Predict the 3D structure of the following.
Amino acid sequence: MRSFIEYFGCGVVYSSSNAIYFRVFNFQDIVNKIIPFFKEHKIQGVKLKDFQDFCKVAELMKEGKHLTAEGLDQIREIKAGMNKGRKFD
C-alpha cells in the first residue's frame, strides 16, 4: 500500500483492526491524479457506477457548486445513491 504513495505522489496509509487504507485528502490530487488513473484503468462491476458518481461530485465541486445550498443538495442526492444506497433495475 505504501507504494501507492510513491506512485501517486500523494496520500497516506493507515490501518484499523481489520483493514489497511490508502486515503487522499487533497482535492487537486484526487482530480489530477486519482480520477485520471481510474479513467485509464477501468473499474469493473458495480463499483464503476460508484466511481462515475464520484466523478460527478468532483466536477460539481470543481465548478464551486458545493458552496451553494442547491449544489450541496445535489451532492447529497448523488451520495445517497452510492454504494449500499444504489438501486438496481
The helical segments are 2-8, 27-40, 47-62, 69-80.
